[in-house]
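Supplementary notes for students who missed Thursday's class. We covered one full example, reproduced here. Read the sequence, then the structure, then the short commentary at the end.
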Amino acid sequence: MVQSMNQKLITLIIGCTLVFNLNAQIPDIQTKYNPLNRYTDEENNSFREYLSKYIPFNLEVINDPGILLPGLILDSKGDIVNVFCLNSLNSFIDSKVLKLFELSAGHWQPKDENSGSKTNDIIIIPIVYFLAGSDYSIDRDNFKLPVYDEVLINTSLDSDPKHSTTSIKNKYEKLISKEKYDEAYPILIYLLRRNPLSCKYWCDLVKLEYHLGNEEAACLNLKFIQSNFIDIPTIDIESNLNCR
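Structure (token representation):
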């Protein structure tokens, strides 16, 4: 779904499918050039500090933990071209976080000539909603787009051990072994909330969509995997899909 926020910015709320085809620089996060250094603000030392200060606390999301992947695209002049989300936690959080990204306009400096490129920059900052002691993962190293350090939004409430990722994965794998795909599907979606950049989970999603008879969704998710991940495991049902 593509939704216009105003005449200048476009918000991409994609859910499970997004393929970038942009004239954008994909920086090596380990190198000296970091587009986050283009942010300037008298009240905040960094873009992450700005986000940490104003991102809303939401008990509904805290009780149903997950990671939101919002981002923006900057041109060489420091103007925001797009703001977007690669996934969704809930409509309230999605819209509030994207509005904060949009409101950072005017705080981004023109691109330094020493950066070696006049192309756009992509900046993705994970927003992590979690209970104290609960676990999450961000497999950023296998993702083609640059994903920077996360912002943590948590509470002092303790998490239930039965809600650990290991416990949930064990339940999911038991259902798969029994071919209970309808029951396994929502659990896999929950695991993707906790690690939305897990290539394995995305591959599992393609297989589940196929087994549930939703070939169109399986093909869209396969395209997402092929476009956005570096190392991709073999998907045993791929040859069965009639993707265009």
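Commentary. Residues 23 and 119 are 6 Å apart (CA to CA). The mean pLDDT is 83. If anything here is unclear, bring it to office hours.
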